[in-house]
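Q: Here's a chain of 233 amino acids. Please give me its 3D structure as tokens.
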Amino acid sequence: MKKILLIAMSFLSVLMATELPTTITTSVKSVNLTNNSATTAHAIPKGMSGMVIHNYGSGLLAITRMLIAKGGNQATIKPYSVVPHDNLPTIKNEIEAGDRVVFGNFYDNILVIAPNEQRYAQVTSMMNKNWIHPDLYAMYLIVHEQNKITLDNLKAFANENQVGLVFLVDRHEIAVVDPMSGADLVHLPLSGATQEKAQSPFYARFGQVSSGFLGISGSTKFPEYYQGIKEIK
């Protein structure tokens, strides 16, 4: 029985890994700055985010913009958000045809938002990725006095920590989210118990974030885990 279970888990791990979006490198074919749109040389799945890289010659490269795929060869042009730093120059030139685009550049770096340690361990054991521990995200919420998971603070956290994907673990599935676009890219099935105890607002090793940790007011209220997952927007 144990052998059968291990085989099933191994098969599920391979299946999950093959369903995940992977990095795609392409180029900008044309640009319409009036509509903030661009076409790419290859079709890209809807919701994937990509970094536009301009070649200035003499080995000088810079990320100038971000693209959010709309499906097919169409994409929306977005500003590229860098971590503020006084010593870093601001890139002002526009996106151009011929620029290289890397979609899903950090998709091997994944933040898992799970209800408890058991679910976290189950998910992270299913594939070989660079797992960004939710402790870091919990600390980010505390420092910025945030009281819920939102697409905005997920994006800000991802930008600071080079997170490519976020796994939002629900009772029966995992929503795989690109935090830069806010899009659900794929939903992966999840087996196991559904009536499990959930930590609020999500699993982190230092316990309940809502208990006044590090001097944050005890009046800060986090929604219960499964409620919070459904309210993310």
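Q: Can you summarize the key feature?
A: Residues 2-19 form the longest helix (18 residues).
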